Amino acid sequence: MAKNNLFRKLRTAGSLVVVFLLIYTTNRLDKHHFDNVQHIMNSVYEDRIVAQHYIYQLNNLYHQKYEEILGSFKVGGLKDINRQIAEYIELFSATSLTTKEAQVFQSLLEKDEELQALEAHLAAMPDNGRRADGISQFKRKLEMVFKNLEDLSEIQLNEGGRLRKEAQDSLDRTSFLSKLELAVLIFIGIIVQVIIFYSPKRD
Asked: Which H or E element spans position 25?
């Protein structure tokens, strides 16, 4: 009799240990998926939405630069625009860049340096001389800059969509595990009840 009671207690304890381990494991999995979703949401904001804002500001500044070249062409005005461009480029470089994004960004940096060299060349030319070939070169180089900015903007959209899908997949896995956990817990609960209350007939 004592052995039977001991055996039943051990089976009950074993069942409870299994339940505990199951709950602990699923809890760790849920936390992992939650942390992953949180990381993705932070990345969407910091590396995509904010980056898109930097691109928008750069686009405006390069348009201002072109208008300055065509207009009064004040060196002081260009210096202020270039300073702001440098600030936004620095901010953008601090975001998380994909391989493709880094390549396009590097191209943008090179084109920006070439533009500033052309600006210095145009500034040294007389007014009647800078209206011809120099401005035409500047415009062609600026079009390349706008193409780089357009490519970077498209990357933000694509990466934002990819991260959204990754977050949704992680949430779907968490939802599935939660349902599985509930089903298994119900099943184990029934087994534990049988173990506790079932008493085999003695001959």
From this structure: helix 2-43
* CATH code of the domain occupying 8-197: 1.20.120.1730
Residues in contact with 159: Cβ distance below 8 Å, sequence separation at least 6, in sequence order: 47, 48, 98, 101
How many other C-beta atoms can be found within 10 angstroms of the C-beta atom of residue 187?
Answer: 10
Domain boundaries, the chain: 8-197
Dist. CA 69–CA 81, nearest whole Å: 12
Q: How many C-beta atoms surround the C-beta of residue 92 within 10 A?
A: 20
Residues 22-67 pLDDT 10s: 777 766 766 666 666 666 666 666 667 888 899 999 999 999 988 8
Global pTM reads: 0.66
Closest to 142 in 3D by CA, of 49, 77, 70: 70
